[in-house]
Amino acid sequence: MKAKVHVMLKTGVLDPQGEAVRHALGTLGFDGVEGVRQGKVIELDLADGTSEADVTEMCEKLLANTVIERYSIEMVA
Amino acid sequence: MKAGVLTFPGSNCDRDLAQGFKLAGADVEMVWHKETSLPAGLDVIGIPGGFSFGDYLRCGAIAARSPICAAVVEFAKGGGHVIGICNGFQVLCETGLLPGALMRNAGLTFLCRQQELIVESTDSAYTRGYETGARITVPIAHHDGNYSADEALVAQLRGEGRVAFSYADNPNGSAGDIAGVLSENRRVLGMMPHPERATEAAHGNRDGAPLFASLVDALVTA
Fold first, then answer.
1. Sheet holding B163-167: strands in order across?
2. Quick check: A14 and B103 CB within 8 A?
3. A11 in reach of chain B (CB within 8 A)
4. Tens digit of pLDDT per residue, chain A (77 long)?
5. A29 — contact with chain B (CB < 8 Å)?
6. How far apart are CA B17 and CA B14, in angstroms?
7. Which residues of chain B have pLDDT under 70?
C-alpha cells in the first residue's frame, strides 16, 4: 500500500519561492496569476496494515514542520 | 571548561567552531552524530554550520532527529548551554528548543558576506561580553536564514529580551530583523551569522571573539 503526504506552508507564512514562480509566470505572459504556493508531495511505500494514524505520526515527527507547514494524507490502496 | 562540538554528515564548520572554543580557552571534544549519549563533563554543546544531511527534506530536519540530538535536547532541558550557528540554528529550531523556523532567503539567493549586527541583549552567557546596542561585523553564509515568526512571537521575543542579535540591514527577510534568538532560560542560543569566523586577526576582525570569551568565562566561574 501507499500513502501520499502533501506538505504546504501554512496560510500567512510567506513563501519566497512561490512568489518567485508567480513572478516568472508573469514574465512569460501568464497574466492573472494572483498567487503561487509551493509545497511538496512525499510518497510512502508502506507495509500492509500501516494505518493512517502511523502516517500522521510520521508527519508530526519528521515529514512536516508544523511550526510553518500543514500536511494532508492520502492513503492509496 | 569543556565544549562538545557535534559533527553530522555535511557539517563544514565543526572544526572552525572547535577552534573558536579553543581560542577562548576551552577544551573541545568532537561528537559524532550517531552517538547516543554525550561525553561526560560537557559544559556547553556547539552545533556547527554546514549542510547536514544535504539539507534534505528541510534544513536541519534530519539532524534534529539523529541519535545525538535526543541527548542534546535532554542536556538543554536539564539547563545545559547549547549554541547553534547557521545550520546549527536550523537544527535547534527543528528540535523545538528554539521557537520559529528558518526559511529560504527572501531574495532566494545564497548570501555570503560580512554582515553588520546589533547586539540586542547582553543578558546571556554568550552576549555579556558586548555592550547593549553595540554594532559588530560577523560573516553570514546561508541560503535559508529567513527567520519565520509571527508578530506575536516577535513581540514576545523582543519583550523578554530574547533577541540576542539583530541585523543592522536585514539581508534575508527575517521577521523582526532577528539574527539570533535565546531560549526562555537564556542558555540556548541560535544564530545565523558565524561568530567563529571572526575570532582571529587573520579573519579580518575579531568581533565574534567576545562571544566565546564570555561564554567560557561564565561557565568556568559557574
1. B27-32, B2-7, B44-47, B81-85, B188-191, B178-182, B163-167, B111-119, B135-142
2. yes
3. no
4. 999 999 999 998 888 889 999 999 999 999 999 999 999 999 999 999 999 999 999 999 999 999 999 999 999 97
5. no
6. 5
7. 222
Contacts of B173 in chain A (CB under 8 A): 14, 16
The contacts of residue B158 (CB under 8 Å, 6+ apart) are B176
Query: Residue B73 and residue B91: Cα distance in Å, rounded?
Result: 11
B101, B104, B150: residue with CB nearest A65: B101
Burial of B148-174, coded b for 16+ CB within 10 Å and e otherwise, reads: bbeeebbeebeeeebbbbbbeebbbbb
CB contact under 8 A, B105 and A16: yes
Residue B81, pLDDT score: 98
pTM comes to 0.95
Cell of B48: 556547527
Give the whole-angstrom CA distance, residue B119 versus residue B195.
12
Look at residue A14 in the predicted model and tell me its pLDDT. 85
Query: Cα–Cα distance between A64 and B146 in angstroms, integer?
Result: 18
- pLDDT value of position B42: 97
Confidence at residue A12, expressed as pLDDT on a 0 to 100 scale: 86
Question: Which H or E element spans position B209?
Answer: helix B209-221
Q: How far is CA B179 from CA A59, B89, B92, B167, B216, in A?
A: 28, 10, 14, 6, 22
What is the ipTM score, two decimals?
0.86
At residue B110, the pLDDT reads: 97
Closest residue in B to A14 (Cα) is B148
The answer to whether B5 and B17 have CB atoms below 8 angstroms apart is yes
Rounded to whole angstroms, the Cα distance separating B195 from B209 reads 7
